[in-house]
Each structure stands twice: as C-alpha cells, then as structure tokens.
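We give the entry.
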Amino acid sequence: MRAFALYNLIACAALFGGGFLVAKARRPPASAVVRDTRAMAGLLLQTAGFAIALLFRRPPSGPVFALAASIVLALVSVCCAWWSFAHLGKHLRLSAELVDDHQLIVTGPYRIVRHPIYFALAAIYAAAGLLLSEWPAFLAGLALVIAGTEIRVRIEDRLLESRFGARFHDYRRRTPAYIPYALARGIRS
C-alpha cells in the first residue's frame, strides 16, 4: 500500500500541475487589463511551504490510516482542481489578473468555495505531508502554504471586487474562501 500511495501522489501532483499547462495551451491570447504581481509573493510562499515539507521527509510510511488518507486526499485534490479548471476555462492563470472579457465564475466548485483550487492545493499538501513529511517540517510548511494562500486570496478578491462590485461582494459574503463551511464548522468545533 505504501508504494501505491506514493505512485498515487506522484500521479495526482502531475495531473494537478499539468492542468495549468493544458489551460495555458488552450487559452486564447488576451491582454491583461489589471494584474497584481504581489500575488506572486503568495505563490513563492506556497512553493516554499511544499519545499520545506518535502526537504525534511521520511520514507513513505505510517499507519494504514495515514496512507489511505493520503490516497484519498490526493484524489480529491486532482478531482477538485480539474473540476475548477473546467469551470474557469480561459480565466485559469497562475498570476492574479483580470482580462477584458473577465467573468465572475460562480458555478461548479465555485458555488462551494470562492477559490477551490486553493482547497485542492491544501488537499495535495496534506496528502504529501501525511505520506512523506516529518511532522515539524509539515507544520512549518503548512504555515507558509496558508500564509501564501491568504495573500493570494486577498489580492484576487480585491481584483474581483474592483471589477464586479456588489455582485462579488454578495458572492464573497455567502461563499467561504477556500475551506467549505462544513469543514470550517468541524474545525471550529
């Protein structure tokens, strides 16, 4: 089961990242009207979080529960990511930007959370951490992943609010950022 969990994680991580490459290849050229390059700092923090967690790693091991949870989280991650990619379509980008014909996407996973790709990122991080990371490194990396995600969410939300005003404000009020309400209630309890 350890080997299967590792191969599953590698495949899911490749599918997760590959989605951005597929989207870029399919995206028609568009000029960015508004771009906030500060969001790249968030991406760098997220990347550093993954690097720390994987730098201080242990062999794929652990109780069967951790291995099974890693497998499930990796699969949830890639499914959520690709579901999000499908709904974002031509708006999928690594950078935080608005294009001329930008639309506010509120369908599919965007009905559940405003930033489902960050939920998927957290799930793949947890899958990798459960399978490979030493706990202190996992927690340190998690802090960086969360900090980077919060930076990106705030910047992207500001951009969307600047374009869509009250419509985005209403969407933001009723839809959590990247942790579904059911999970958030469970965390608070």
User: Anything to note?
Assistant: The chain has a mean pLDDT of 90. The two ends are 32 Å apart (CA to CA).
